């Protein structure tokens, strides 16, 4: 009987532990938010992650109407990755591309867009915001990829509980 219980516990651990290893960190929030229209261009862009990212291989590139306006290097502060923007950056459409190493060592990449009416240099943007349509939302794909391991863990746990209840009732007789 003890062997059966030990076997069930070992099987439960084997099934449950890989689910946490499959999940990768995701960007939970960007500042400015994707698609936002701002009155004033901020001095930095910030990506907030579910887990603290690593500084290894960190790349954040902010591109505006005049080209690259990222200034210096991005830094990690807790759950945030912060990239300064050049004070000479004008108003207009902006794209932020990033590649960050998550806490589990996997790369997380993506882009987001925003529009600023007034630049850090005081200039006013000409024209209107451009609508950007990305082929895939990186955060949505990461959330979808976590569904299968989570469901597998839940189903396996329920099966193990059922087997345990059956064995327990048989032993009590």
TrEMBL record:
GO terms for molecular function: copper ion binding. Pfam families: CopC. One of its GO terms (biological process) is copper ion transport. The chain crosses the membrane at residues 147-168. Residues 24-114 form the CopC domain. One of its GO terms (cellular component) is cell envelope. It is found in: Cell envelope. Residues 1-21 form the signal peptide. Keywords: Copper, Membrane, Metal-binding, Signal, Transmembrane, Transmembrane helix. This is Copper resistance protein CopC. It comes from Intrasporangium oryzae NRRL B-24470. The lineage of its organism: Bacteria, Bacillati, Actinomycetota, Actinomycetes, Micrococcales.
């Amino acid at each position: 009987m003890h062997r059966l219980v030990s076997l069930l516990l070992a099987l439960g651990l084997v099934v449950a532990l890989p689910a946490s290893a499959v999940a990768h960190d995701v960007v939970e929030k960007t500042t400015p938010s994707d698609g936002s229209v701002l009155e004033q261009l901020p001095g930095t862009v910030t990506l907030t992650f579910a887990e603290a990212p690593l500084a290894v291989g960190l790349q954040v590139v902010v591109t505006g109407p005049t080209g690259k306006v990222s200034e210096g290097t991005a830094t990690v502060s807790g759950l945030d990755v912060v990239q300064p923007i050049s004070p000479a950056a004008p108003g207009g459409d902006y794209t932020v591309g990033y590649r960050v190493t998550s806490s589990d060592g996997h790369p997380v990449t993506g882009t987001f867009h925003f529009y600023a009416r007034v630049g850090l240099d005081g200039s006013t943007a000409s024209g209107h915001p451009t609508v950007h349509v990305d082929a895939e939302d990186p955060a949505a794909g990461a959330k979808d990829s976590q569904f299968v391991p989570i469901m597998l863990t839940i189903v396996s746990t329920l099966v193990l509980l059922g087997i345990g209840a059956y064995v327990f009732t048989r032993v009590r007789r």
